[in-house]
Amino acid sequence: MEKNRRIGVVGSGTMGSGIAQVFAQTGYPVVLLDQHPEALDRAAATIEKSLGRLVKKGTLGQEQVPAILERITRTTKTETARECQLVVEAIFEDANAKREILTKLDEVTAPDAILATNTSSISITELASATHRPQKVIGMHFMNPVPMMKLVEIIRGLATSDETYAAVETLTRDLDKTPVEVQDYPGFISNRILMPMINEAFFTLMEGVASAEDIDTVMKLGMNHPMGPLTLADFIGLDVCLNIMEVLQNGLGDDKYRACPLLRKMVAAGHLGRKSGRGVFDYSA
Ligand code: NAD
Questions:
Q1: Does the domain at residues 6-183 carry the CATH identifier 3.30.420.40?
Q2: Global pTM exceeds 0.90
Q3: What is the CATH number of domain 191-276?
Q4: Within 13 Å of residue 207, how many CA atoms lie on the same side as its CB?
Q5: Ligand 1 atom closest to Cα of 100?
């Protein structure tokens, strides 16, 4: 990738703001796009706060901050992605909305531009078919919070070329992240393994094997997980967990991925985790 050519990030929410930050920190000029100007303002504030934390920790010099912030251009106009060498799509998890934005990006960007998607669960192959350049479409699955987490799953769609994969792998290392090559199957590696574990924790709770606190304690102290599966589910959002289980069950065609009825019931009740003030645990205080 060329250091002086722009990188686009579409969707300036939780993930998009973090992705824009790490590209800008690495020295790339970034175009950060969102359909809502308020989301762009929130992203700017989030990025400034995150950089401030890095300065406090001593991993970033205060004198570097203004240049990093200046590298990020915020806009609501998709056409601004025109000069980008790579665009990472990080809008919400909806296949139709993602296909629509990829079709638009395919129209506005140069033919050599790579289109990456940060989807957690949608098939890269399916998203690539919304463009005329499936060989240049790839999954770049960053982890939350992006500035802190080292892993990027790089997912090859059916048509992704070796050249596209190699460029994105090199870029990921340039961001000081660790790339892992993944073939396009439901849940990739991360959610294929994580979500059934979380789902099993719900079954364990539903069957009365143990209390929620004790289930989390066993996984923390017994398996050295930094956070118990039920606390983690509350962080991720129970609706997101349910959706990914459904993707695994439908995509792999195996009922071993069936979502736990208790998980379904809690989502139906609106107990979605931290974001709704209540999930497995209560956050109202
Ligand atoms: P989010 O809801 O925080 O942000 C999405 C942003 O996209 C919003 O600001 C919204 O205004 C914007 N947007 C929606 N449609 C748009 C469009 N057509 N054009 C421009 N902007 C648009 O979502 P998020 O949590 O950052 O997730 C983004 C993607 O990253 C999803 O695909 C999700 O599955 C994936 N992901 C999320 C996490 C996580 O922990 N949050 C982790 C890994 C991957």
A1: no
A2: yes
A3: 1.10.1040.10
A4: 9
A5: 18
